[in-house]
Amino acid sequence: MAMRHSVVLDNRRCRGCTSCIKCCPTEAIRVRGRKATILPDRCIDCGSCIRVCPHKAIKSVGDELDVLTRYEYCVALPEPALYGQFHNLDNIDIILNAFLQIGFHKVYEVSKAAEMLSDFERQCIRSGASSVTPQISSSCPTVLRLIRMRFPKLMGHVACTILPMELAAILARREAEQETGLPPEKIGVFAIVPCSSKVTAARVSEGLSHPVLDGAFAIRDIYLRLLSPMKHLENVEPMASSGIIGMGWASCGGESAARLGDRCVSVDGVGNVIRMLEEIEDGRLPEADFLELSACTQGCVGGCFTVENPYAAKMRLKSLMKGQPVSRNRFQFEGKDRDIVRRDKELQYLPTFVLDQDLGAALNKQLRIQELESHLPGLHCGSCGAPSCHAFAEDVILGRASEDDCIFKVRERMRSMAGKEEADDYLPPPFRHPKSEPVKQ
Amino acid sequence: METIRLVYPVEGGDLIEAGEASSKMKLTLKKLGLPQDVIRRASICMYEGEINMVIHADGGQAEVEVEPEQIVIRMADTGPGIPDVEQAMQEGYSTAGSTARELGFGAGMGLPNMKRYSDEMIIDTEVGKGTTVTIKIKIPQ
Questions:
Q1: Closest Cα of chain A to B67: distance in Å?
Q2: To bridge A246 with a disulfide, which of A136, A242, A417, B87 should be the other Cys (CB 3.0-4.6 Å)?
Q3: Homologous superfamily in CATH for domain A359-431
Q4: B28/A contact by beta carbon, under 8 A
């Protein structure tokens, strides 16, 4: 099945500049016909390209708020990263109350579900149930997709739990059914998320066979809608229902801290995450019990859908936590209901990078890739639309590009046909021979 | 039959860069779709060998041959050589210097680990000339 994504390209804005191709951690972008194109099987929705695009042509789309009208009763599930986005805010209840003014009937904080997940994990640690170490957090969907693609050996290390927003959705729908008596399909449950990967996860879950959310809105989109009602609230009902631990999940380190004393490594930024996974794969960090991995800088507060600088958001979140109880929620499900936090499907390996399913054929392709690469200039100039000469060689051998897409290869051919002094020999300054043009100071 | 040859120079004296070659090799092995266990064993051997070359021999060269039935990793240096191979193979025995130890290396597990994770290991060494460690890992058919 093709993967579904929320990262999309605005063709009118894209000028084909090649900025995005190099920042992509899975080499999923190629420029063709003056436009960037995303290889859907490779995209992990990390948002790196969205951040780097100078023309704001790569976007991620959350759902439109209009969808609320399709349901009789709507529940908002704000992720705690939202709380760090506002200036001079000293009370989370103001945000939560404002949701009731913009079309939602109820609010269920994702941080509440996060606290239950943390308690569940602590119970597992105490009972000695988690056997594989280090355990890898399952809370960042981008990291899950990365592991499925590039680190399949580590799939067995990933925690068995679903995303906090998924648990929140299940519990919120249950509560809403009981309170309203409405059938579940008339209840809309929507997460307010900091990143593209959670929008995708709301549509196609990594761990659940059937999606439990009806949609996801970008923090950025909701932020503006909330501002005005937040200023004009007449009375602020106490609604906040989580403590420091739940809110802490919004920044990298929070999920680890909630494990109370486990030896945890918290890594943020997709490049750092890849390096850490490489080490874990080789067993180079035997002393760690738990790995908290966030694709975004500083964790969810650094998501590409946020408004505020991640460091500032983290600071604000910390000051909002002051004076709050450590945790207000426990995992108190019994019997079969305990499985509510668990994935109902296993993570599946995505062999996106494998050259060929047949080893002989793969070796042959690799051989041809190496042969071609040895004749490429190694400048990684991006003129062919691929992020590096190696990626280009792969594209040619896998039939995604032609050898003539490399301007240096074409130049070589023209030279051999027309001789050295032809006018077509023009090269831009970075590629000229150093002797032919001294740098003007 | 097809044989892939990958060559990685290993810079001496640079413990920070050590591990680059095994990391690069690992990515290529993954693209070939080799069994996960084979990849893991090959990269552990390569990593240990790389560290050894950096700590003891001022670098060297790692050469990897991937054939349909096996992976052969040959790590060659022109360092001091190993005077007593049997002793060097003992777990916990190390002649690593203080800098390497401060960084957490020198636990004396390098060669023993390479032996453990490979199907065949040949050490060819001459004091004053250098060492070549050849590792073979079979690919289950």
A1: 8
A2: A242
A3: Electron transport complex subunit B, putative Fe-S cluster (1.10.15.40)
A4: yes
